[in-house]
Amino acid sequence: MLPLRTADRAGDLLVATVCGFPSGKHHREVKAAEAARAVADGADEVDMVIDVGLARAGDWAGIEAEIAAVRAAVPVRPAGVRGGVVKVIIESAALSDDEIVAACRAAEFAGADFVKTSTGFHPAGGASERAVALMAATVGGRLGVKASGGIRTTEAALAMVRAGATRLGLSGTAAVLDGLAT
To answer: Which of 75, 87, 138, 179 could form a disulfide with 47 if both were Cys (CB 3.0 to 4.6 A apart)?
Structure first.
């Protein structure tokens, strides 16, 4: 893997990376170390994957602790200074509605900036309008909501925005943008 030093030459581009990817089964100390290294190498944003097993077991203190560890490794930056963003990938398709709500609350309590639906790699699936709407209602504008995983059409992208997504992770950016141009 190449270091993220390209961020030094990226100008206005933001560099985002992941930790705990794709399974989320890494120990929180490993996730925090991955995040710290990424920031040291120039990453502006870190997307962390929660341990879905902990979520399914109802271990919300464990989920909050792993998010807090990553948050501590990605320092919050002053207003107007780019970077320092933590997005928490909850794998919403693998969780019940109650678990989605609890995961979003844990992310907020631990200081995350966004909650995110999916890595796009979990066998349970990616983003759904229902999950995005539930996540948006739970965080109430205090955190951003990123819909990600399987969004390949303009219609799907617009549906996610209507449901409350403030950012999109697209599987087919060109096709989505082409659909907006027509």
So the answer is: 87
Q: Which residues contact 4 (CB under 8 A, 6 or more apart)?
A: 15, 17, 38, 41, 42, 43
The residue with greater pLDDT, 63 or 7, is 63
This prediction has a pTM of 0.91
Catalytic residues: 47, 116, 146
Cα–Cα distance, 111 to 101 (Å, whole number):
16
Where do the domains of the chain lie, and which CATH numbers do they carry? 4-150 (3.20.20.70)
- How many angstroms separate the Cα of 82 from the Cα of each of 8, 13, 35, 42, 44? 13, 10, 16, 11, 7
pLDDT digits (tens, 9 = 90+) for 97-139: 999 999 999 999 999 999 999 998 898 999 999 999 999 999 9
